[in-house]
Write a structure and sequence with these properties.
The complex is a heterodimer. Helix content of chain A is 69%, strand content 3%. Chain A has helices spanning 9-40, 47-65, 69-90, 101-122, 148-170, 172-182, 184-189, 194-216, 228-241, 246-266, 274-285; strands at 3-4, 7-8, 138-140, 145-147. In chain A, strand 1 and strand 2 form a beta hairpin. In chain B, the strands form 2 sheets. A two-stranded antiparallel sheet of chain B has the order 1-4. In chain B, strands 2-3 form a two-stranded antiparallel sheet. Chain B has helices at 2-8, 11-24, 31-53, 62-77, 83-105, 110-130, 157-179, 182-192, 194-199, 204-230, 240-253, 260-275, 281-296, 300-309; strands at residues 140-141, 147-148, 152-153, 232-233. Classes of the chains: A mainly alpha, B mainly alpha.
């Protein structure tokens, strides 16, 4: 068997694949955070809870209403996005004139409420969610065995990331969004309904998190606390990449997933902490982040 | 009534009154509960020094509380060191960790600062989970309280209470003096307008770092004391929920007020004591208080009270 640095090639590739999957989630989640941060200037701590809500929406839809995976992939983000819109309209909106840190504190409180409620109703142990019929099984690539669903996760996240990039960087709507980020007063003076755009942006960010949640449902256990630890890692990813660029957030997400996978092979003890160590190093040598343009 | 309240609010009357209440308290309440409360009050005051006066929202203060607790617990229990050395070492460990955190985190501002401290604290959590000295999931249990300076036996709850009270009052006075010193004024200037403070010739990064280290060290002192009081240090002290709790205490009591965090800590610890029966709903209730506080009550109790009593200011 082929070995690289004393590690069987298959083990290495297997971990790299897991890293790529984790990276997909990092990418979609940090993309959502970046989109929300761009216009609202707040960090959405509830992002992890919204990811969990997406997974739970898929699970509940199937268990109670018999809604399948493909419908859930659209319905769960829609539902979670709508709750996001309600949150923005009723609560977040009141805080824009104060320090942006209050937005972080509010969403932190919301995350505690949401996760606390789900823990009470469903317990902390996970529910399993079946892989859809179409994506069952795997393909033998010759050098390794690839479960189809895992490949689908990577492709689906990449598609969503690139679509979001296209909307924001290449369409008229996106140019309004970017202008709103640069100079909200001026954009409003041109007659753009900025408050509505802010509301929809938050809803879209929440929907992205929920989409990642549905993708994750068949791979990980659907559990009330599945989002909390993940979101802290995603914060580190966001600090490393900097929130200035969308493609930067996506690249950093995938890249760090791979690094984490490699760490699992060569030094498993550090796999939990490697991303935080990288964050510390990036802060030392390039404080604005790899793709950041913060002053 | 308002005149009476105003008179009570005068420092000459207020402080001796509060101090007398704290001395008499163990005869009316359970001492261990009071000690826990004082530890969290010191923790919240140390946190408030940073967020309330320097405008730096740290989301990772649990790391200092927990690390100091583990350090003290390990030295006192496994190395059989006397409690005063344990407390000192715990505080020093937190200060060092604070230096490392601070040096990294002050490179970014605002929202990034919060995320960096949170991520670094999570790293500390994983390290505490993995290294053998902390006892992993079990934590360090049955930490002996020992004999302070060789002649004060801390096994007695009442004796322990007065030691904790002395620690709390010293920590509180350090914070009080810091806030009202020229150093504290510079911190406030940085909070209000950092570029301006910079242009006036203040090396703002050094001020922020020093404030961070001081806050971390005092949080560590609180954590070390807490370990001796409860004879236990566990993973929940380094968990990010703990960072959230100290934020809630400070927010609820009043950010940037001197007594606010003490009030907030008293409220949250009492609440947790009473809510112990409802189990999992504690998180929900704490989260809901967070939301209500942020939406309607940003000044906190001490801030709102001060505004009621002195409407002119």
């Amino acid at each position: 068997m082929t070995e690289i640095l004393g590690v069987p090639l298959q083990v290495l590739l297997g971990q790299l694949l897991i890293g790529l999957i984790n990276g997909s989630f990092y990418a979609v989640l940090s993309l959502g955070l970046a989109v929300i941060f761009g216009l609202l200037r707040i960090i959405n701590f509830a992002h992890g809870a919204q990811y969990m809500l997406g997974a739970f929406a898929a699970w509940m839809g199937f268990s109670y209403l018999g809604i399948g995976y493909w419908a859930a992939l659209f319905l769960a983000p829609l539902v979670v996005g709508l709750t996001g819109i309600v949150i923005e309209r009723t609560m977040l909106r009141r805080l824009y004139k104060f320090d942006h840190l209050y937005g972080l504190l509010l969403t932190f409180g919301l995350a505690l409420v949401i996760e606390g409620l789900f823990s009470n109703f469903y317990g902390v142990s996970g529910k399993s969610y079946a892989v859809p019929e179409l994506l069952k099984g795997g393909v033998n690539l010759g050098f390794m065995f690839l479960p189809v669903y895992r490949g689908w996760v990577v492709i689906a996240s990449l598609t969503v990331c690139l679509t979001t990039w296209f909307i924001i960087e290449r369409t008229k709507l996106g140019s309004y969004l970017r202008a709103g980020t640069e100079n909200p007063q001026l954009v409003q003076a041109f007659g753009v309904n900025l408050p509505l755009m802010i509301t929809l942006t938050y809803g879209f960010g929440a929907a992205l998190a929920a989409f990642a949640g549905v993708l994750a449902a068949p791979i990980y256990q659907v559990a009330p606390l599945m989002g909390t630890n993940l979101i802290i890692v995603v914060f580190a990813v966001v600090v490393i990449g900097g929130m200035g660029s969308i493609l930067g957030a996506v690249l950093t997400g995938f890249g760090l997933g791979l690094v984490e996978g490699l760490t699992k092979v060569f030094y498993p003890e550090a796999s939990n902490t490697v991303i935080f160590v990288i964050m510390a190093l990036v802060l030392l040598f390039k404080p604005a982040g790899l793709f950041g343009r913060e002053a | 009534m308002r005149d009476f309240m105003l008179k009570l609010g005068e420092p000459r009357i207020l402080w001796p009154l509060l101090f007398a209440l704290l001395i008499a308290a163990p005869f009316a309440f359970y001492p261990v509960f009071l000690m826990k409360l004082l530890c969290f009050a010191l923790f919240a005051c140390a946190f408030n020094l940073l967020v309330g006066y320097a405008g730096l929202l740290s989301f990772g203060h649990a790391a200092f509380l927990g690390t100091a607790g583990y350090m003290t617990g390990y030295l006192v229990k496994v190395q059989n060191l006397p409690p005063e050395l344990g407390l000192l070492a715990g505080t020093a460990a937190a200060a060092l960790l604070g230096y490392a955190f601070g040096a990294l985190a002050i490179r970014r501002r605002g929202i990034y600062f919060a995320m960096i401290t949170l991520a670094l604290a999570q790293m500390v959590y994983f390290i505490c989970l993995q290294i053998p000295q902390t006892g992993g999931e079990d934590g360090l249990q049955a930490v002996p309280r020992g004999t302070l300076f060789g002649f004060i036996d801390l096994a007695d709850n009442l004796t322990m209470y007065y030691v904790v009270l002395a620690i709390f009052v010293s920590g509180f006075l350090i914070i009080y003096r810091t806030i009202h010193s020229p150093f504290g004024q510079v911190l406030k200037a940085i909070r209000e307008n950092e570029p301006r403070a910079l242009s006036l010739g203040y090396n703002t990064d050094r001020y922020k770092l020093l404030a961070f280290v001081l806050s971390a060290a005092l949080s560590g002192l609180a954590g070390a004391t807490k370990t001796l009081v409860l004879q236990l240090s566990s993973l929940s002290d380094v968990d990010w929920h703990m960072s959230g709790e100290v934020m809630l205490m400070t927010l609820l009591g009043g950010m940037g007020t001197v007594v606010g965090p003490v009030l907030g800590a008293a409220l949250v610890v009492t609440l947790q004591n009473y809510l112990a029966g409802v189990g999992g709903y504690v998180t929900v209730i704490i989260g809901a208080i967070f939301v209500v506080c942020v939406l309607l009550f940003r000044r906190g109790f001490a801030g709102e009270l001060a505004r009621l009593l002195r409407p002119g200011r």
